[in-house]
Every structure is written in C-alpha cells, then in structure tokens.
Specification:
This protein is of the alpha+beta class. The chain is built from 3 helices and 4 strands; from the N terminus they run ββββααα. It has a 4-stranded antiparallel β-sheet.
Length: 116
C-alpha cells in the first residue's frame, strides 16, 4: 500500500531536514522537504520555504538507507504519485451516485412521463 497526500509549499522558521520518517504500525509516513530556500521577511525575519511531499509506504528495514542513497528518486516518485488520479472518497462516491440516480429518474420521466 502506497499513499500520497501530494505536495504543498510550506514555510517554517526552522530549517527542515531533507526528510522525516514516522512509523505507524507497519507503515512509514515519509515526509520529504525539497527545494528549501531561505527567505528574509520584513515582519518575521528569516523563514524557510520548501516543497513538502508526504508518502505512506510499508515500513521496512533499510528504508532510511534507501532514502539517503537516492533522495532525488524519492522526490521524483512523490511527484509521480501526485500526478496520478486521486481515488474517490466514500463521500464523493455517494454524491456522484446520488446525482446519477437523479439523472436516470429525469430520463425515465422524460420518456414515460412523471406517472402522476
């Protein structure tokens, strides 16, 4: 199972590491911090802006070594996942099906009348 939440442009007053790994049961939540730049803001001082990606992968031995060995490949993989179509949530499916049912009812009424 591999999930992604996509990227966002984030900002922090603390310079991030290249990545963080959070273990949840048998899964690893890998947060990637990419294109980190230091920016001077008039009102708050120095901040760091960066692209942020989160990927959920099965936890395994050697995961950290894999990320360290080819960080760019991990970022590219996160970008690829981001460009894949996102699957519908249960709520989105219910809304879609409800709209389709209404459309079918309208077609039936148009063909056979309202029945009243």
């Amino acid at each position: 199972m591999i999930e992604r939440s996509g990227s966002v442009i984030a900002e922090s007053n603390i310079m991030p590491n290249k990545y963080e790994i959070d273990i949840i049961d048998d899964l690893a939540v890998v947060s990637l911090f990419y294109n980190v730049i230091e920016v001077e803001k008039e009102d708050i001082g120095i901040v760091y802006e960066y692209d942020y990606y989160k990927i959920i992968v099965p936890n395994r031995d050697g995961l950290e070594d894999s990320i360290n060995a080819d960080f760019e490949a991990w970022v590219n993989y996160a970008k690829e996942l981001e460009n894949q179509p996102k699957s519908e949530t249960d709520k989105e499916k219910l809304i879609r099906v409800d709209k389709e049912v209404v459309e079918v009812k309208e077609v039936i009424e148009a063909i056979f009348g309202s029945g009243e």
